[in-house]
Amino acid sequence: MFEELDYQETPLGAISLRRRSEPRLGGKILYEVKLGEEFLMSSLFVEAEEELAALALQSLDGEKLDVVVGGLGLGYTAAKALENEAVRSLRVIETMAPVISWHRLALVPLGDKLALDSRCSLVHGDFFKLAASSGGFDPDNPGRLFHAVLLDIDHSPSHWLDTGNSAFYTDAGLTALAASLHPGGVFGLWSNDPPDEAFVSLLGEVFASAKLHLVTFANPYTGGESSNTIYLAYKAG
Fold this sequence. Notes:
By secondary structure, the chain is α/β, with parallel strands linked by helices. Helix 6 crosses helix 7.
């Protein structure tokens, strides 16, 4: 019924990975991640994480796309990006080393798909520090540009896992991020909160254009629907 697959201390607190059977869903096997007593993610609700990659990448023309994903988690955003044959390289930046080890040890369902794909690099690092740095997201190639940067770390632009992340969601933070994008590139952000028009306006001040998508999905626990928000912002060019 329940198995804790890993439990480790991190600078942000104790993180755990567990696998359990859900009797209310006919014994469906779920993978869940907790940080302390807070649930971070579940394999039950992945539609919006996948749509983050699908919506962002479908707006890009051409082949040989270089993509950054901030936040590995259970891997659904990264795996969806790799389904796009135009993606040449994918750098997934994750601040918690145990999460990367779960994939490399195949403790999570998508572990092999990411760890064994030659286009995909699982990078232990701080997305927010790299976004603010002059070197960008690939320290070995300072100034390297990407066609898409997709972020799924904080709960929303105003609900952060770490208060230090808040500086990213400002004019200065987003402007620094935009410097790592090719002309015409896209920044995509997942949010667990309802749409925030003020944040869309902020994106529109930094980027050439911005919009949001409300992604709805069935919630078997409530018998209704739940939703997440996807923000997309496009660099001029």
